[in-house]
Amino acid sequence: MRLLPSLNTPQLLGYAGLLPFIGITLLLLSKPYHQAYWQHALLSYGAVILTFLGALHWAFAMQARDIPHRAQRNLYVWSVIPSLVAWLALLLPYGYGCGLLVLFFVMALWRDWVLTRVLVMPDWYLPLRKTLTFIVTICLLVAIFN
Question: Is the pTM here over 0.90, yes or no?
C-alpha cells in the first residue's frame, strides 16, 4: 500500500525546491541573531527561482510552433521580465524586495494559467504551480512580517 501519491520527476523536483524556502524561513524565525544572513539567503533564492519561472516560458515559446506569432512573442517577452524583476528585488531594501517577489510569483502563476489556455500542458503542471506558489508566497510573507 502506497502512503504517498505517485509523483513524477518535475513534481518531485518542484517540491524539493520548496525545501530552501521553508528551511530558510524556519531559520529566520528561530535564529534571529543571524537575521540579515537568512534574509539575504531567502531573497536571493527567491530571485533565482523567479528567474527560472521566466526561463520556462522562453522554452515554451521555442516549442510553440502552432500558436499565433503574437502569442509566441508574448511568451518571449514575459520570459525575461521575471529576471529583470528578480534583479530589481535584490537591489531593493529587504522587505520591498520580498514584496516584489511575492507580487511576481503570483503574476507568474497567472501567466502560467494564461499559458494553459494557449498551449496543451500536462495535467499536473498548473496544480503543481499553484501549490508551489502558495507555499513560496507564504514563506516570503512570513519573512517580511518577521
Answer: yes
Is pLDDT at 3 greater than 60 in this prediction? Answer: no
The string of DSSP codes covering 37-96 is HHHHHHHHHHHHHHHHHHHHHHHHHHH--SS-HHHHHHHHHHHHHHHHHHHHHHHS-HHH
Q: Looking up cell 525545501, which residue turns up?
A: 19
**Angle between the 35-63 and 18-30 helix axes, to the nearest 10 degrees?**
160
Cα separation of the two ends of the chain: 41
Q: Please, are residues 112 and 50 in contact by the beta-carbon 8 Å criterion?
A: no
CA distance 126 to 112: 7
Q: Which cell numbers in the block locate residue 132?
A: 508551489
- Domain limits, the chain: 20-144
